[in-house]
Amino acid sequence: MQWRGRRGSSNIEDRRRMGGGGAARVGGIGGAGAVIVFLLAMFLGVDPSQLLGPGGMGGDISSSAPVELTEEDRQEGEFVSVVLADTEEIWASVFQEQLGRQYRPATLVLFKEGTRSACGGASEATGPFYCPIDRKVYLDTAFFTTMHRRLGASGDFAAAYVVAHEIGHHIQNELGILEETTRIRQQVSQEESNAISVRIELQADCLSGIWAREAAQTLGTIERGDLEEAVNAARQIGDDTLQRNAGQRPMPHTFTHGTSEQRSRWFMVGLQSGQLADCDTFATDDL
């Protein structure tokens, strides 16, 4: 992916120099431990924060001295900023052309160790997520290392797919989809709620496919092998694959994001179509 030297977004909130200061930190869980919590949570079909103690995100609220950013941190921050800028340009165009309305961009929060969001605490263990309350994406770029070393999803476009997927949730929020599905999920059983969650996540994968299509066709920033990296990333973070990697037998009723086949296929639907209407995962029985 061609990203170096390109325009970045002004909608970046960089909290990384704060370290875990003032944030709910994962008491004693980090690195490999965080990955284990993440994979186990995927297996159980629950929020990873539920596994980290009565304090939500670990219970230990502490401050830390400001941290210095490494050269790798700086480059990762620039990379995410460029990807976010691309999503803003692309979705502004798609919203105008397909919906006749203006796109309101999200803010992306970069952090290290931990921070707070309007939806609760954030840490490496939670993975990247979108909070519809404050309309912000939360990302510890250490997750990119986890993807590469532990989940088998490497490459800059695989990392870009993660950002695009979370922005996909912002698109859903802008369209009123998250509000409606949240209301319904509060009224049904856990298994039914999980099934709705799968449709939400697969739709976000499809929306990230639309972004990838436009990045290739209108921005011309896609290089040979980039799309394969994104498809592979979608496969590697499917619920069935994560559960197998955690040493468990896949249990479909606990799935919250969809299988590897479903995630990669819906990404391809968006990539091949480019149409919002074709990403309606709620209108089909064939996920």
Rg, Cα atoms, Å? 18 Å
Q: For the largest beta sheet, what order do the strands appear in spatially?
A: 1-4-8-7
How does the overall form come out from the CA principal axes?
A: globular
- Number of domains as seen in the coordinates: 1
| Low-confidence runs of at least 5 consecutive residues | 21-63
Beta fraction:
5-15%
> How many helix segments?
9
Measured between the Cα atoms of the first and last residue, the distance is 30 Å
Largest beta-sheet characterization = 4 strands, mixed
Q: How many runs of DSSP E, i.e. beta strands?
A: 8
Query: What is the string of helix and strand elements?
Result: EEHEHEEEEEHHHHHHH
Class per helix and strand makeup: alpha/beta
Helical residues, percent: 40-55%
Write down the overall mean pLDDT.
Answer: 82
